[in-house]
Amino acid sequence: MTDDDPLGVLAPFAGRWVGGGDGHYPTIDDFAYDETIEFASMPGKPFLMYVSRTRHSTEGRPLHTENGYLRRAGDAVELLVSQPTGFVEIQRSRLTDGVLDFETVVLERSPEAKPVHELRRRFVLDGDTLEYDLWMAHAETPLTHHLHAQLRREK
């Protein structure tokens, strides 16, 4: 990263990340999944395009996908996410020692989407390892840990 790099603190996130994780929630059976996350840069722009794709680790069937952007926003970092299940979200954090502890700014859902009413995300970048956790509040279930994954930078 150079001083004139428009990505600034986001530059270390750029790349393709591959690995797996575990999901659990009080209303579903536990599951394991494989995931690919891509943070793609566009020359001269202060953001990374974000794409996440997951598959069931033993059955291989698609589980979830989401798209968006990881962008610089003044001294903060924003994660903008759109999900085909009818959700859009804006999460905001400061980057501290490779950690992004996002707080929800906006979470909106379409009238037909499931009743998710809170999400929290955390990314931890350590060299070529990216870990993340996601917490979710759904229907009558309060904010509860849902996903944990560990991904490695694909070289």
Describe the SSE topology.
Layout lengths: L14 E11 L2 E14 L5 E10 L5 E12 L2 E8 L3 E7 L1 E2 L2 E3 L1 E7 L6 E11 L2 E10 L2 E13 L2
How would you explain this protein's 3D organization?
It comes from Rhodococcus chondri. This is FABP family protein. Residues 7-153 form the THAP4-like heme-binding domain. Pfam families: THAP4_heme-bd. InterPro entries: Calycin, Nitrobindin, THAP4-like_heme-bd. The protein has 155 residues and is mainly beta. It has a single domain, classed as Calycin beta-barrel core domain (Lipocalin, Beta Barrel), CATH 2.40.128. The protein is 0% helix and 70% strand. The protein contains no helices and twelve strands. It has strands spanning 15-25, 28-41, 47-56, 62-73, 76-83, 87-93, 95-96, 99-101, 103-109, 116-126, 129-138, 141-153. Strands 7-8-10-11-12-1-2-3-4-5-6-9 form a twelve-stranded antiparallel beta sheet, with no helix packed on it. β5 and β6 (87-93) form a beta hairpin. The protein is globular and about 50 Å long. It starts with 14 loop residues before the first strand and ends with a strand.
